[in-house]
Amino acid sequence: MSDKTKFGRLPDRGTTNRETVDAILDEGFVCHVAYVIEDRPVVIPTLYARDGDDVLIHGSNTMGIAKAVRQGSPLSVAVTHIDGLVIARTGFHSSANYRSVVIHGKGEILEGDEHARALDVIVEALVPGRLDDIRPNTTSEVKQTSVIRLSLDESSAKVREGDPIDDEEDIGTGVWAGVLPLSQVAGEPIPSSDLEEGLDTPDYLRRYQR
Amino acid sequence: MSDKTKFGRLPDRGTTNRETVDAILDEGFVCHVAYVIEDRPVVIPTLYARDGDDVLIHGSNTMGIAKAVRQGSPLSVAVTHIDGLVIARTGFHSSANYRSVVIHGKGEILEGDEHARALDVIVEALVPGRLDDIRPNTTSEVKQTSVIRLSLDESSAKVREGDPIDDEEDIGTGVWAGVLPLSQVAGEPIPSSDLEEGLDTPDYLRRYQR
Predict the structure, then answer these.
(1) From the list B43, B96, B178, which residue is nearest A78 (CB)?
(2) CATH placement of domain A4-185
(3) How far apart are CA A122 and CA A139, in angstroms?
């Protein structure tokens, strides 16, 4: 485990530990992808899945990513989970508890079988069990959706957890301090208005947790 | 309302409507900021608050943003709320329900009174009511925290909501379809381990909603 990456020193609370990186990535499904077009940065949210030592980035509706990759732009990808608000005794020490991963590198637009498989990997990562219930993508559907593969070689995680860290002189001054926990929760699945009657909600949706 | 911005045509489901943009920004507090350093994009999560026609971006622990702004890099900022997973009858039409805003522009590093005030605006936006309970920042604390102001002139929103939109021939094939709602919820506030006894949890934390 190193505290340096090719892109410089890791920040406070940073780690390149792959177990930490993988756990954070596997809990999420939306990333923010940044690329450069005409010397300007562009950041957009999109779906992703981790696939071993890579992330697979879904490029539908966000064709800018594929275009940027084709033009040679490197990518920077962030995945962030917010676990709470850190309510310190001062504004200065107030913060958020979070777990985030940032990945840098050159993306690769997948083609052929790798492309088709990657789309399935993303569906199965989003909703484990779903893939068995749906028909395979058609060739045309695969073509309309790009997937960019990005290696985790240059990835690092940052984690902030626990109590606020206040200055000695602010403790015991009658000001409340602590953490307001925040989490993402799934509600009851809502059947589509065009769903035929008598179809049960799949178990994998009722058990859904991130 | 236009479907174009200086950075090109708006994507599907895009709008530059400021009421939509403001509502999405006001519900969040974590953004992803992208900038360019040595022709490479960098994206990082940080705290922000909307302040009228601007967003104020918190630069502590993320000095890269301030450095990039000083070197002339434009910024791209995204705020994204995930409202659900769209469980379509095919992988192709599966998606997420979300509301997102993307802002482009040159940031400005705040100084003097604007800087001190901006830090207070961020604290109050994070936890409305909190500012009255804490002491003012010291001059040294203000200096250790940079705030970047970015205009909302070049901002747009994207919203996807409601049912999956499946192809005619896939409807009625016995495959469940619908939406799995997701939301961020606040839990019970956790007092800091160094909190003196007998202090009540502030009402603004018990009522906290985003």
Answers:
(1) B43
(2) 2.30.110.10
(3) 17
What does the mean pLDDT of chain B come to?
92
Fold adopted by B4-206: Pnp Oxidase; Chain A (2.30.110)
> pLDDT tens digits, residue range B110-149?
999 999 999 999 999 999 999 999 999 999 999 999 999 9
| B187 neighbourhood in chain A, CB within 8 Å | 180-183
Backbone torsions φ then ψ of B181, nearest 5 degrees: -70, 140
Chain A CB within 8 Å of residue B40 CB: yes
The ipTM estimated for the assembled molecules is 0.93
d(CA A170, CA B18): 40
Minimal Cα–Cα distance from B155 to chain A, Å? 12
Alpha helix ranges (H) inside chain B = 18-27, 63-70, 112-126, 139-143, 203-206
Mean pLDDT within B87-108: 97
Single-letter residue type at A41: P
| Closest-CA residue to B42 (of A17, A157, A33, A148) | A33
What's the whole-number mean pLDDT along residues B79-83? 98
Structural domain spans, chain B: 4-206
